[in-house]
Amino acid sequence: MPANLHPLFVHFPIALLLSSVALSWAGRFWPGKGLDQAAWYTLLLGLAGTVVTLISGLVAAQGVPADSPAMATLNIHRALGIATFVIFGALAIWNWRSKGVISGNGRLFFTIIQIVGVALIVAVGFYGGELVYTFGVGVAAAVP
To answer: For residue 4, how far is the Cα from the chain centroid?
Structure first.
């Protein structure tokens, strides 16, 4: 079993949260097909995966020395990961409190927050890639 479990978990919340947004938008074009319900469940699963991913990332970050040149990128990656959880958590709370009925200006604002969430997923992934491919964080040294 690898010591760093973060790479094993990270793809689940990405796929689930992005699927939730796509299902939510599809539900507007094809109402009554169960797409809104599917969006809700993938959002909840994505949030659960985000919690596991955040915890595993925080544990993995303990292995990066404080004076590492990767630390600034790691701090951005961490902050974006937390922000992603907060944004999608807010969407889940809003959806739950409204019993899934969001209309009018609320729907527009909900969509804008979803777009912000998608942008955060892209950004956190970019910085995660920088950590691995630029700084070699979590990567074993190559054997000559």
So the answer is: 18
Tokens of 91: 């969407």
pLDDT in tens, 19-32: 999 999 999 899 88
Predicted TM-score of the model (pTM): 0.91
Residue 128 and residue 57: Cα distance in Å, rounded? 10
What is the DSSP annotation of the chain?
Answer: --S--HHHHTHHHHHHHHHHHHHHHHHHHSTTSSHHHHHHHHHHHHHHHHHHHHHHHHHHHTTS-TT-TTHHHHHHHHHHHHHHHHHHHHHHHHHHHTTT---THHHHHHHHHHHHHHHHHHHHHHHHHHHHHTT-TT-PPPP-
Burial of 63 (0-12, 13-18, 19+ CB in 10 A): exposed
Six-digit token string for 109: 């604002």
What value, to the nearest 5°, has the Cα angle with vertex 57 and ends 55 and 60? 115
